[in-house]
């Protein structure tokens, strides 16, 4: 009887832990997994704190970038299907095309570097998806362009930083190679936004 009680308690603990994990941000969960891997590598190879910090920075950049890339594609698909203005529709299609390729490269690089990426949108990106898709008609197009402007301003900064600060040369190269595409997206949305904002 005592053994059964202990088993039930253990099962309850596991279930509670799992429930706690499910409510967490998928990007943060992936980062935690990567921190455990980095800690293990530190123990195995007597890696220094500076090297571990470099690994943490790289994995944090990659996990955020993965969620951001997924948002561009998922949101792009929704907007292509429902946009009123030709500019929002054109921009959304460009996001699907470019970020589908970028996401594939990012996933291949993460696999090569043994970095775990989230397979669902992080909380911040979930909110953006919800904020845009809850709108209808021209309002959705305008909300989409507003979010894309903000998103690409942040992306250009984060990828530029990673092209300098990443400790892994391949991750650094990937970030540097992606910056011109993100700048082009930023220029494109900056020019198109005024037309979409003026639409009725």
TrEMBL record:
- Cleaved signal peptide residues: 1-19
Q: Does the keyword Metal-binding belong to this entry?
A: no
Would you say which domain of life the source belongs to?
Bacteria
Q: Which InterPro entries match?
A: DUF4142, Ferritin-like
Per UniProt, residues of the DUF4142 domain are 58-191
What keyword terms does UniProt attach to this protein?
Answer: Signal
**Name this protein carries in UniProt:** DUF4142 domain-containing protein
Taxonomic source organism: Hymenobacter properus
